[in-house]
Design goal:
By secondary structure, the chain is an alpha+beta fold. The protein has one domain. The protein has 2 helices and 4 strands. The protein starts with a strand and ends with a helix. The relative contact order is 0.23.
Length: 67
């Protein structure tokens, strides 16, 4: 999982039930996971989260994603 400057990471995962995007905190623990309808939706959502990882401080990121 690639990590941004604020320590959070994002990963697209394929499961039996479909695609999911996982957000991991700086310790590596998955703190949020979102189900997506297909791979393009998962990639798009993950891209948005990655941008926020790089743009937002850890505190602001936690507030924004309610972590």
């Amino acid at each position: 999982m690639n990590r941004g400057e604020n320590g959070f990471g994002v990963e697209v995962r394929e499961h039996e039930s479909g695609w999911r995007v996982a957000i991991a905190d700086p310790t590596g623990a998955v703190v949020s996971e979102r189900a997506c309808s297909d791979h393009p939706e998962a990639r798009t959502y993950a891209s948005t989260v990655r941008q926020h990882v790089y743009w937002l401080s850890a505190e602001r990121f936690r507030e924004y994603y309610r972590l």
